[in-house]
Amino acid sequence: MQNMKERLSIPDPEALTAELVGFIHDTVAREGRQGCVLGISGGIDSAVVAALALRALGPDRVQLLYLPERDSHRRSRLDALLVARQLGLPVKEVNISPILSKMKVYKLQPPMFLTPRSIVEGIITRMDQRTDLDTARASYIRTLRGQADEDLQRVTAYCRSKNRVRMAVLYQYAELSHSLVLGTCNRSENMTGLFVIHGDGACDLAPLHGLYKTQVFALARHLGLPESIIAKQPVGDLMPGITDESSLRMSYDTLDPILAGLELGWDDAAIVDSGALPNDVTYVRDVIAASEFAREGAYKPPIRGRADLREH
Fold it and tell me: Do the beta carbons of residue 269 and residue 281 sit within 8 Å?
């Protein structure tokens, strides 16, 4: 898929950086806010957004929050601190485990913290490997449609509850400091439903919504972010052993060219001629369709009826 990968390249990363920096700066100024708040997770998306916010607003107007919980990987904290140190920004750590415990979220799954993380991750990885690809992809689509079986729905509730609590904390700190919440979701996640309504899908401005994940990687290199962050496998860090790729059952290198081809209006045959597998194209089309409600719900919830303004 060389042709499409060339289209996905960023010809002028400095111009793109300037555009995104200006977007953040102008939005904060237009809304009359003091600055921005974002969750720093140790992943590449939040690292890129933090670097852009720093350029846009300066160190005194950017708040970084690290929001761990019982299942957070130790490396996530180390990576979050690594990015913050490189950018020269302080990090406030707020553990959300007590909130999740009060909500009985941890009762939805076995107490994984009692077992070494490496063992839990190994068990989940082996289960994934034993699952047929078509079956796994069908499960992801059913989850997007709210049609998963009871066990998978419990996993979904387990993960999404953590995501939503984190966003609630971010908004609390934003309200207290008269700031805006910066989103960290990218275009690939948005198009495939790999986000949570009222969780990481909620924000006041979204600098990465126009960039596919592979473009975020390229921008991260241009911004000089640590190579260990760029090389790290993308994860939500909501449950041990679950990665973006294991959720989507597709790598971003395979996914993004297909997404781009579909957005350009190419038919399936043209995308396949560019190097994609027919089953992959069909699957991505199905994922986009299945996640449409999530996108609508995240940014413009459906409403019914209207106020009756007839004269009496």
Answer: no
Work out the end-to-end distance of the chain between its first and last CA atoms, rounded to an integer number of angstroms.
Answer: 64
Judge contact between 165 and 99, C-beta under 8 A.
yes
Place of tokens 């140190």: 85
- Cα–Cα dist 189/210, whole Å: 11
Pairwise CA distance, residues 9 & 311, whole Å: 57
Torsion of CA 151, 157, 158, 159, to 10 degrees: 120
Beta-bridge mates of residue 297: none
State the average pLDDT over residues 229-255.
92
CB distance 161 to 103 below 8 Å: yes
- pLDDT tens digits, residue range 286-302? 999 999 988 887 666 55
Q: Does 312 score more than 60 pLDDT?
A: no
User: CA 228, CA 221: separation in Å to the nearest integer?
Assistant: 11
- By DSSP bridging, strand 91-93 and strand 179-181 are unpaired
pTM: 0.92
1 near 274, Cβ under 8 Å? yes
Residue 260 · residue 4 · CB < 8 Å: yes
Residues 6+ apart with CB under 8 A from 175: none
Residues of the chain with pLDDT > 70, as a percent, come to 88
